[in-house]
Amino acid sequence: MKILIPYIWLFLSGFIALTLEILWVKYFQVLLGNTIQSFSWVTGIFLLGISLGAYIGERFIKGQKSNYLRIYLFTELLITLGMALSFLFLVNPSKNLYSFISPKSLLTDGLIAIIFIMPITTLMGIGLPILTEQFKKTHTIEKLYALNTIGGGLGVLILGFFGVMIVGYQNLIFIVIALNLLLSLSIYYFSDRLTQHTQDQNLQLINHEKIPSTKILTLAFFCGFILLGLEVVWFKSLELILNDRAYISTLVLFIVLVTLGITSYLAPKLEKWSPSIFPILILLGVSSLLVGEFISEEAFLIARDFPRFTIIKIAYLALIFLVPLASFSFIFPKLLISKRWSGEAVAKIFISNTVGGLVGTLSVSYFFINTLGMKSFYLITVFFLIGIIYFLPNIKMKKTYASITLALFILFSVLLNTNIFIHKPQNIKVTKESPIGLFSLIENNRGDLEMYNGNYRIVSPYKNTNVAHAQMGLAFFPALFHNDPKIILSMGTGYGISLGAFLNLNPEKLYSVEIHSMVNQVSHYFKDKNREWYNDIKVVKSIDDARGFLARSNKKYDLISSNIASPYTTAGSQFLTKEYFTIVRNHLKKKGIYSQLIWGPHLVEIIHTFKSVFPHLLAIPGYSSKDLIILGSLEPFELVKPLDYFGENWPLYQGKFTIAETIKIGDAILEEKLLQKPEFLISDHFAYLTHNFTRGLNFFWIHK
Question: In the structure, what pLDDT confidence band is assigned to residue 457 with cuts at 50, 70 and 90?
């Protein structure tokens, strides 16, 4: 039993650490906005802290020759305290915290991540080198590392995925803190017994070099750079194929960590069988990526409606994700078994590896996606793999394998297409790849222009007959109940039709917030429908996460409207929670009105959540009777304009219902939904929409 305890500790510490990362990703999405930069800062600072912790662990090993378990116990107790303090501030961010990150910038985002994540992950990083030094006589580094990474992967799946669905984010925080306390108690109980146990062993001491070679450290750096850079690329690719869901980052982390843990366990066995198997595995991964390029465009050619999970998409995911991951994951374990490591040396190699991962994840998020295209990182990966193959220790025929990889690199250079088309290229008017998503403006078969981001529409396309009615209704419907709206906020530009309608109200200022810059840049294509809002001096444009924009400001508005994308995306679901509606309520003036387009199979839950914040509701059908433009106010609605005030400027619902009839239809739908009992109320601290697979939603396809 005693020999299993170190493995259990590292398994549990990985289990806790990666669950924490999922929690940080969630609350940083609320604080910094739902962007890949937010995800990358969490991942990057997580890695930087692990690196610093490994360095501190190395210092401890040099300065103290015995009883490392006391140090390990002390760090785990501090981790528990740090977790409690971190989430005390992140779960309900204060106005001062939002003010600190306003205006939003790379510097402030990084500082926030450093403050709330780095102290804890630094303490976490101390553990592996300390335990390696303590148990170097009785345990192998590759097995300790394997259990740590597998624990992380299972933590992501069990707690970060299923745990979130069952107990929610807030309760999960308490569970993680309790698990870390349990780990600390276990260390306290077994520390003296295990110290005596390892001293009693008569095994041969590991003969290690005090300072690992520069070559090994360099290779470890590029291993981290490649794997974490690819993780960002895989994360974005899965978003495009499966649509943006909260569980995608969880899936990627789970598969990456478990695969890395399994390869760490298998690497010594393969080394005994044939050291030259490792470059062959690398070549397999490179070849898989290359073959994936031949079908990648097919994989992203989507139908007019949300596609189901097809065989070609399964093949594509296997070729660009699963096979390369399994192949490349053997590189770092190969480095681990190339020498006999002490705790001091383990610290050095992990510092190098995690710093490489930090550089990889941030460079992809901030440089490659914006400038060269997401898939260009595959080219960089192959380039670095050539060097890794050549410099891997104990490999025969290095030049041959490196030459083959070089040939594949050249083939990649010729064939790689950095644009992922979701429609026929001849129909694409504008396309832009960015960390926010893959934006496309396309011309459909009827000659209408439609906007897409990823593989779902930003707003409902023109094939719906009630587009103008719904888009203008976000502005005109609340204006019927407000005497003189002067300060207006519109969140989510879409085609700009709502902004044009708001300008008809003659406001003093119209604030427009849109997270994707391309949406505003193509708005001129729809100038006949949006009153050229982008040229109006009354409009104050902001490219920002709408929720963060509100949270960082004290400004109050007469009217606020929101036209956000699918509620079943990670981003969209954050605009349906009780906490979000509360933020909006606090930005309304005394007689202010909020309008939002809502839809989806959980309409009952959305309406009841809305009602929990806004006591007075009104609604009309939007694009159809399955979605609503809902109004919320703190005071009873009083009609201050004739119902036909906007005349022909506001098209009738279905081309035949008067505004009075449309309001009656909306009231009937609203009354019906309010009489139904909701399954839940939507909250920041739960994942009901993004993780819920009932009512037609399931793991691999979208509700139709």
Answer: low
CA 630 – CA 628 distance, rounded (Å): 6
**Domain co-membership, 140 together with 286:** no
For residue 459, list its beta bridge partners.
none
Structure tokens at 289: 């990526």
Q: What is the mean pLDDT of the chain?
A: 82
The answer to whether residues 452 and 523 touch, using CB atoms and an 8 Å cutoff, is no
Show contacts of 169-175: CB within 8 Å, 24+ apart: 169/23, 169/26, 169/27, 169/91, 169/684, 169/685, 169/686, 169/687, 170/91, 170/685, 172/19, 172/23, 173/23, 173/83, 173/87, 173/91
* Whether the predicted pLDDT of 307 surpasses 50: no
Domain that holds residue 301: 213-338+372-420
Mean of pLDDT values over 191-207: 50
Domain presence at residue 704: no
> Do residue 307 and residue 394 come from a single domain?
yes
Give the chain's radius of gyration (CA, Å).
28
Which residues, 6 or more positions from 64, have their beta carbon under 8 angstroms from its beta carbon? 71
Return d(Cα 550, Cα 544) in angstroms, integer: 10
Cα 290 to Cα 319: distance, rounded to the nearest angstrom: 8
Angle of CA points 139, 144, 145, to nearest 5°: 145
DSSP collapsed to 3 states, 368-427: HHHHCCCCHHHHHHHHHHHHHHHHCCCCCCHHHHHHHHHHHHHHHHHHCCCCCCCCCHHH
At 696 the pLDDT is: 36
Mean pLDDT score, 171-196: 85
DSSP state of 170: H
Looking at the structure, do residues 249 and 307 belong to the same domain, yes or no?
A: yes
Same-domain pairing of 435 and 478? no
Q: Is residue 354 part of a domain?
A: no
Report residue 288 as tokens. Answer: 């898989």
Overall number of domains in the chain? 4
Q: Give me the residues paired with residue 557 across strands.
A: 588
85-to-115, 124, 453 alpha-carbon distances in Å? 11, 16, 37
Spatial separation of the C-alpha atoms in residues 539 and 105, rounded to whole Å: 23
CA distance 323 to 475: 50
Do 57 and 145 lie in one domain? The reply is yes
Residues 206, 219, single domain; the answer is no
Same domain as 194, residue 260: no
Q: What's the pLDDT tens digit per position in 232-285?
A: 888 777 776 666 666 777 888 888 889 989 998 888 888 888 878 888 899 999
CA–CA dist 101, 22 (Å, integer): 22
Q: Are residues 431 and 482 in the same domain?
A: no
- The CATH number given to whatever domain includes residue 574 is 3.40.50.150
Q: What is the DSSP letter of 657?
A: B
User: What length does the chain have?
Assistant: 704
What ranges in 204-310 are assigned the alpha helix state H? Answer: 214-242, 246-273, 277-300
Q: CA 101, CA 106: separation in Å to the nearest integer?
A: 10
- Token duo for residue 515: 């997270």
Look at phi and psi of residue 470 and say left if phi exceeds 0, alpha if psi is from -120 to 50, else beta: alpha
Binned at pLDDT 50, 70 and 90, residue 103 comes out as: low
Distance CA 584, CA 413 (A): 49
**Where residue 188 sits, what CATH number does that domain have?**
1.20.1250.20
- The stretches of 33-163 forming alpha helices (DSSP H) are 36-63, 68-90, 95-100, 106-116, 118-125, 127-134, 141-157
